[in-house]
Amino acid sequence: MAFVDLKDICVSYDGKTNVLEGLNLQINEGELVSLLGPSGCGKTTTLRVVAGYIDTKSGDFLVGGQNYTKIPVHKRNFGIVFQSYALFPHLTVFENVAFGLKMRKMDKATIEQKVNNMLEICGLTEYKDRLPKQMSGGQRQRVALARALVIEPKLLLLDEPLSNLDAKLRIQMRVEIKRLQKKLGITTIFVTHDQEECFSISDRVAIMNGGVIEQYDTPENIYAKPKTEFVARFIGFENFISVDRQDDGTYKALDYIFKCDNSDLKQAKITIRPDDILIVDEASNLNSISGTIQVRTFLGKSYQYEVSTPIGNLIVNGDGNKVYETGETLHLYLPENKIVLV
Amino acid sequence: MKKSMPYLFLLPGIVLLIFFLMVPLFAILWPTLFPDGFSLSAYTSFFTDEYYIEILIRTIRIALIAAIVCIILGVPSAYFISRCSAKWKGILIAISIFPMLTNSVVRSFAWINILGKNGVINNLLMAIGIVDEPIGMLYTEFSVLIGTIYLFLPLMIMTLVGVMDQIDNDMMEAAESLGASKLKAFIKVVLPLSVPGILTGAVLVFTGALTAYTTPQLLGGNKSLVLATLIYQRAMTLNDWSGAGVIAAVMIIITLVVMKVLNLIAAKLDKRGEIDA
């Protein structure tokens, strides 16, 4: 049985429309799971339900077999890192980290030892007497993390913790988070809208849209085999072509025939990443199409072309070896194993 | 020429202050120190007169209790208001500053109607049979206190709402997640961060209560004199302008001392830091 179990969670702010629609999510012990989606998809709401800040309309939330649905926030023992860090500005770094332990009425020596140990792990020992305003964004982030971890939480909840950091620090911090999470073995839920960030540190990813989870799988599987058009679009697929399934298992759009790996599915669209379309010298009659370049944009390592074809405009990334001009005719090949059906 | 221009704009204000505030103030205080040649006798006779000392202590006591009660009533109200949505915040602030919108005479008459011998409270108590004859609530220190608190609570609430609006709700939630109940989170996080506002509000209420005239005059009468009403009595009824000047000087000094002390405390306790990165 899963360690964390969200069962048919419904949440509504106004009593009429549901923000979460019967959400189900299972997380194993020690796993780092990300909730990924555009703003308004319900990912933060889900996290706040888990944290206990929002009451559910219906559904159950279990951790380790115990029902947490009605347990108030301060009795849940979950560590939470906020986007704003929410450090207490009137307390020093040490006092901030010690706050949770003081609330648990631990004796002074134990608190001192635990806090110092956690500051050590997070590389904050030299800053322990500073106030939050005297620290940089990355350091505050670490204080927030230390404060959430020192209480030895059952769950660690991270609400877009990296979005206030600059790009370089963000990568550094996400490695740090992953390292700490694995070291301490804490089951973690990570909310983000950044696909790269989420794929890089998660064991599993739940992609959310409109209050439901569209796909819940490992980053590798989601990247290679998105299940729905929404997921495919969200993780960088373009070129959605409506197709009809034929008796021999191939798919047909106008007179063009496409063959793809998992052709047992009977669905109506094929999709492929701009990177995976090959520009070839001659069009064949399978998985191929020709068209003229409408727009060319420079991406740095290569050019991206918008190619007008009989089945619609396709976005193609060139390989950088040869540059084509606007108006030129391109022959495109869509490799069988790169096409995904949604 | 250009550099002195900004100072030129200060001139009207300075002239106004000098001729209409500093000069009259000086004209009142000068005779208290120099009746004919320098002498502190006016002050020593004030501070040795038990009657005056009683009034002085009563005034400070009323101002102090009013400030404390305003803190106790104001902090939870202000916190509640600051956590409301913008729409409700507007409505609640309008309601809470309502006492300041009425004329002080009208306001005090309302309290006379409530606290008087034939007032609402006494009639009610007698009707239920808790008391046999009306309790004398009016023209006591109690009635002055009620009127003063009623008048100055809005000031405290407004000051505190301003400060508490700055406290990010994430901090309350963070405290809760770390094991603090809502009450404990309030005490450990919101309260310390509100200290500057509480002290500013306390200064406003204290100095306001110390110098208020209409409310203690109408609700305290001649039985519960305070410094402000005493000044009026000295100057207008007894035509003792020197005596009134002494009291005025004492009031000014108390106000300045209290403001200074509270400002020092505020500077010491204010540990708010910026949240932004």
Note the beta-strand portion of chain A: 25-35%
Oligomer: heterodimer
Largest interface: A-B, 34 and 25 residues
The residue-averaged pLDDT of chain A reads 89
Describe this structure in words.
The complex is a heterodimer of chains A (342) and B (277). Helix content of chain A is 25%, strand content 32%. Chain A is built from eight helices and 21 strands. Chain A has helices at 43-51, 93-103, 108-121, 137-149, 167-184, 195-201, 219-224, 229-234; strands at residues 4-12, 18-27, 32-36, 58-63, 66-67, 78-81, 155-159, 187-192, 204-209, 212-217, 238-242, 244-245, 251-253, 256-258, 269-272, 278-280, 288-298, 303-309, 312-317, 329-333, 340-341. In chain A, helix 2 (93-103) crosses helix 3, helix 2 runs parallel beside helix 4 and helix 4 (137-149) runs parallel beside helix 5 (167-184). The model of chain A has no long low-confidence stretch (mean pLDDT 89). Chain B has 277 residues and is mostly helical. Helices cover 78% and strands 0% of the residues of chain B. Chain B has helices spanning 5-33, 41-48, 50-82, 86-96, 98-101, 104-115, 120-128, 141-164, 169-177, 182-211, 214-220, 227-237, 241-269. The longest helix of chain B is centred in the first third of the chain and has 33 residues, at 50-82. At the A-B interface, strand 6, helix 2 and helix 4 of A face helix 9 and helix 10 of B.
